[in-house]
Design the sequence.
């Protein structure tokens, strides 16, 4: 009975120390690849959302800066990495 508990404890420690960090690292790498793909596919006219919640339409893309039109005659410059995704209004 005591050996079963020790084996179970060893398995839990291995899971916590080895398996969970590997799974987390793989998930983070997938997110990084997805974000890089999103940033590379951006084009003028896309409607996007920033991590601050601001929604705008891309009017120009430079190397690291995106120009977003957020209102009539209002264009802001933001870093590309502050964008979190495309925004589609549900009607």
Sequence:
């Amino acid at each position: 009975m005591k050996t079963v508990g020790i084996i179970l404890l060893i398995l839990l420690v291995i899971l916590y120390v080895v398996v969970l960090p590997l799974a987390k690292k793989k998930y983070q790498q997938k997110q990084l690849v997805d974000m890089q793909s999103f940033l590379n596919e951006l084009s003028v006219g896309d409607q996007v959302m920033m991590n601050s919640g601001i929604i705008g339409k891309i009017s120009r893309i430079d190397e690291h800066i995106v120009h977003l039109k957020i209102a009539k005659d209002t264009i802001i410059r933001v870093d590309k990495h502050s964008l979190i995704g495309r925004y589609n209004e549900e009607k």
